[in-house]
Amino acid sequence: MRPLLLLLPATALAACASVPDVATQPIPTSQYEVRILEGWTVYVNRSLLREESGAGPEALKVLAAKLHEIARVVPAKPCAELRKVPLWLGVDDGPNDRAQYHPSPDWLRKHGFNPEKAKGVEIGNAKRFLQTAIDQPSMVLHELAHAYHDRVLRFDHPEIRKAYDNAKAEGRYERVLRISGLKERHYALTDPMEYFAEGTEAFLGTNDFYPFVRAELRQHDPKLFQLLEELWR
């Protein structure tokens, strides 16, 4: 999922350089209407609901379909944890127009965004979501995997770090096929968090980088496959 930001308070990820030090004004929670989709709490920017033929209704349909599929494939216990993660659907609401998990209220507050979005997944631009969801079908799963990693497993999980270090040392992801037909460096090599989220896409859904699906992941990175079997149990 590229380049969907995991905004860590003390980590300078590539796209963070484009985020202003302070946004003009955070969008208050009161600007959002709460909807329940497939058991998830979704905060929807009210301006999206005023457009009957705009991106809002279509984005809600697609998001509901994505969440329905996640609920079908994720085992009951971890799925219950995922359903505790709120989602936010906006117009141009977040630090960028991509989907992202927000670990830290402090980072959001410091940069002028609504700190109540912390520990949730934000889809900052409904129109962009509709476009990106075609080539990145497991986008929502990817961001929820970040939430699971942070809230349940913890970001310093030693086995995930070990698997990431091994895969990086072995060069498994340096040049792989992408959905576009090109060969690129896999986004999983960014850090252990992206390695876990990208692996989860292939394990439980469909990635836009090779390995695309579960059988390919088992063959390409058996250590990660075995670890994901344990962590998503």
Give an account of the 3D structure.
This protein is of the alpha/beta class. The chain has 2 domains: 14-136, no CATH class; 156-231, no CATH class. It has 10 helices and 7 strands. The chain has helices at residues 46-49, 55-73, 76-82, 105-110, 126-135, 139-153, 158-170, 192-204, 214-220, 222-231; strands at 32-37, 40-45, 87-89, 99-102, 120-123, 176-177, 183-184. The strands form 2 sheets. A 5-stranded mixed beta sheet has the order 1-2-3-5-4. A two-stranded antiparallel ribbon has the order 6-7. A hairpin with a 2-residue loop joins β1 (32-37) and β2 (40-45). α8 (192-204) packs across α10 and α9 (214-220) packs across α10. The longest helix is centred in the first third of the chain and has 19 residues, at 55-73. It is globular, with a radius of gyration of 17 Å. Residues 7-18 have low confidence and may be disordered.
Order of helices and strands: EEHHHEEHEHHHEEHHH
What is the topology, as strand order, of the major beta sheet? Answer: 1-2-3-5-4
Mean pLDDT: 92
Instruction: From the alpha carbons, calculate the radius of gyration and give it in angstroms.
Output: 17 Å
Which strand-content bin applies to the residues? 5-15%
Work out the helix count.
10
Query: Structural class from helices and strands?
Result: alpha/beta
Major sheet description: 5 strands, mixed
Number of strands: 7
Poorly predicted runs: 7-18
Through-space gap between termini = 23 Å
Helix content: 40-55%
Number of domains: 2
Anisotropy-based shape? globular
